[in-house]
Amino acid sequence: MGELMMIPLIARIRSIREVTFDTLMFEVAIEKDGKEVPFSYLPGQFAELSVFGVGESPISITSTCTRPGPVEFAVREVGLVTEAMHNMRPGDMMGIRGPLGNGFPVNEMKGKDILFIAGGIGLAPLRGLINYVLDNRSDFGAVDIVYGARAPNLLCFDWEFDTWKAAPDTRVHLTIDAPADGWKGSVGFVPAIVKELALPPGNRLAVACGPPIMIKYVLEDLAAAGYRDEDVITTLEMKMKCGVGKCGRCNIGAKYICIDGPVFRLSELKTIPSEY
Amino acid sequence: MTVIGYMKRSALEGVLGDLSDTLEVIAPLPSGKEGGVELGRFEKGAKVVIGPVKTMLPLKTIFLPPVEQIFRFSKSKNETMLTPSTPVTRDRVVFGALGCDIAALALIDEVFLREPVDEAYEERRTRTTIVALACEGQGPECFCASVGIDPVRPDGADVVMIPVEDGFIVETITKKGEQLGAMLQGALRDPTGPQKKAARSFKSSSRSDVDLSAPAGGWSAVWESEAWEDASARCIGCGICTVVCPTCHCFDVHDERHGNGGERFRKWDSCMAVNFTMMAHGENPRPQHRARVRQRYMHKLVYFPENHGAVACVGCGRCAVACPNRTGIGEVAARMRDQEEDSDG
Ligand SMILES: Cc1cc2nc3c(=O)[nH]c(=O)nc-3n(C[C@H](O)[C@H](O)[C@H](O)COP(=O)(O)OP(=O)(O)OC[C@H]3O[C@@H](n4cnc5c(N)ncnc54)[C@H](O)[C@@H]3O)c2cc1C
Ligand code: FES
Questions:
Q1: What is the CATH number of domain A106-235?
Q2: Which end of chain A is more exposed for a tag (fewer CB within 10 A), N or C?
Q3: 3-state secondary structure of B243
């Protein structure tokens, strides 16, 4: 956290990289009183990023704490704040409050095989976790990454794929929704590819992030394949303002996504209402 | 609890005037033309309304103001300077607070004082001394006694004033209260025997028969309850219940820009508003009125107890009075429990 709950530190933009046509990745250095300060976080945590005079938005940290240096955020332009972010340039300043939220249970994941399942920008929070796992490769078992988007140019972080494929005992399964010129990977929705792979539960955890409809089918299929609820991990999204459990906006039942989440095991989700 | 003396009603404004030399004094003051009463800053010469009145807005307004600046910012070419706002400039005392409203602060504390602590709220809390007015009950809507609140000597008060004859018996409860008590000494006399007796036997008429207990089966037992159909059919979604509620604390965050600078505010918000949960893309997880009504009551009666061990209602009855359809939380709670029995049977 910054010093004060609602007062951001400064996140100075070092560089901006295009992720897809509507998503940019910001590499930022965190500053306090004009000096760069360290920022430590866990994979799966997020931060409230602000454009002063426009507003704040919760954005997942997509970099990994195993690689010191700028902190990375991939932002999709969808409304006021994200549009204002897309108009920023290197050297410009955002506000940042964080890290916020619980993050992935990385210690409890050690020793396990991991099946990562992501759709679209859902790869943003998982990218941090995947790189964390690969940077601590010997702590984890086999890694499989199933990732899909509607079309090849909508796959986020495509510069990572070759590195991931080259990592020991790691496989990357890419898919797009419909055939496209020059595409050599699979075609089909993410849940179908997961089903086809048929990786048995055993010592495996499944971690899924993506659009609600994808998550719905994936969770059903994993249950049918024998995955226990404790071994299935996902993230939830809900409108947020404070990010610290005060403004009362992001609850589902008695859980607040901003402090009790955004990461939940399926076993926890079964204790809260499935509607909001 | 220590009785420190008797103060005549007619001395009160003078006492507050003296205190206002060193403290910010907040008290129930006349508001508008219709005999309204609101908490406000007491200035010398003002008349305080102390009597059987409940302010329309609860005590929370002085700890979580309806609109509050969080910080100001100014931008130059290379830097952005943030100046956090100062929540209070002087120590404060609030006079004439009622038990229901004071009890509500303990519930808001559960949320705002847990980690990460909300510093603005905390500073207002620690720099404010609360002087309660023992409450004899303010009409049929009052049911604080039903939710375990003592309207005469409420927990959370630093000083209690108990109306007797044409004045008050003043009792100090906490260290902060003793410090304030010392500043009141000049206006106090030794109480007479009958005055002490009257203070000891002061009683409230608050109802103790409203049952807000949650259904035994928790949220899942009543998720599909018809209570939500009934309550939402009677609700016009105006959100006044959340405005007047002493325990509602939801807020929105909002930026404004002026030239090269600007400010960030927070302001009260309401879970009854359609856009409360409306996300970018127009996606809304609580699109129906029914879902929002359910959220409000479930939060008070089920979720808050699950997280903090107490219902988020202090029995002030303001919601039922302010509601265009006079819906009270007690009826909704009863309907939820009935529903559970129906589905059990
Ligand atoms: C834990 C979490 C992690 C997220 N990670 C990312 C990410 O890595 N990349 C990314 O592009 N998006 C992410 N989002 C979604 C992102 O927060 C919204 O798209 C963004 O807030 C929209 O803001 P806006 O001002 O552009 O849109 P507007 O519609 O103008 O929204 C106004 C305000 O409402 C709130 N709001 C609106 N939609 C959402 C939403 N979906 N979730 C939360 N608050 C919302 C925000 O406070 C926002 O500033 C995440 C959301 C959550 C809850
Ligand atoms: S965002 Fe404010 S409570 Fe979660």
A1: 3.40.50.80
A2: N
A3: helix
Domain locations along chain A: 9-100, 106-235
Q: Which tokens go with A167?
A: 């990592």
Owning domain of residue B192: 2-200
Buried b or exposed e, range B255-287, using 16+ CB within 10 angstroms: beeeeebbbbbbebbbbbbeebbeeeeeebbbe
> The whole model's pTM is what?
0.95
- DSSP type of residue A139: G
Which residues contact residue B253 at a Cβ distance below 8 angstroms, ignoring those fewer than 6 apart? A6, A55, A56, A241, A242, A247, B70, B264, B265, B266
For ligand 1, pick from A17, A57, A88 the residue to mutate: most ligand atoms within 8 Å of CB: A57
- Closest by Cβ to B303, choosing from A52, A82, A254: A254
d(CA A194, CA A213): 14
DSSP B144-176: GGGGT--SSS-TT-SEEEEEETTEEEEEE-SHH
Give yes or no for a contact between B50 and B83, defined as CB atoms under 8 angstroms apart: no
For A162-196, how does the pLDDT look when each residue is reduced to its tens digit (9 = 90+)? 999 999 999 999 999 999 999 988 999 999 999 99
Q: Which option is the CATH number for A9-100: 2.40.30.10, 3.20.20.70, 3.40.50.620, 3.30.565.10?
A: 2.40.30.10
Is B73 close to A53, i.e. CB distance below 8 A?
yes
Using the Cβ of A225 and the Cβ atoms of chain B, whether some distance falls under 8 Å is answered with no
Strand partners, B169: B6, B162
The reply to whether A106 touches chain B by the CB within 8 Å rule is no
For residue range A35-77, what is the model confidence (pLDDT) as tens digits?
Answer: 999 999 999 999 999 999 999 999 999 999 999 999 999 999 9
How many whole angstroms separate alpha carbon B3 and alpha carbon B164? Answer: 13
Could you tell me if B69 and B264 are in contact, meaning their C-beta atoms sit under 8 angstroms apart? yes
What tokens does B246 get? 């002493």
The residue length of chain A stands at: 276
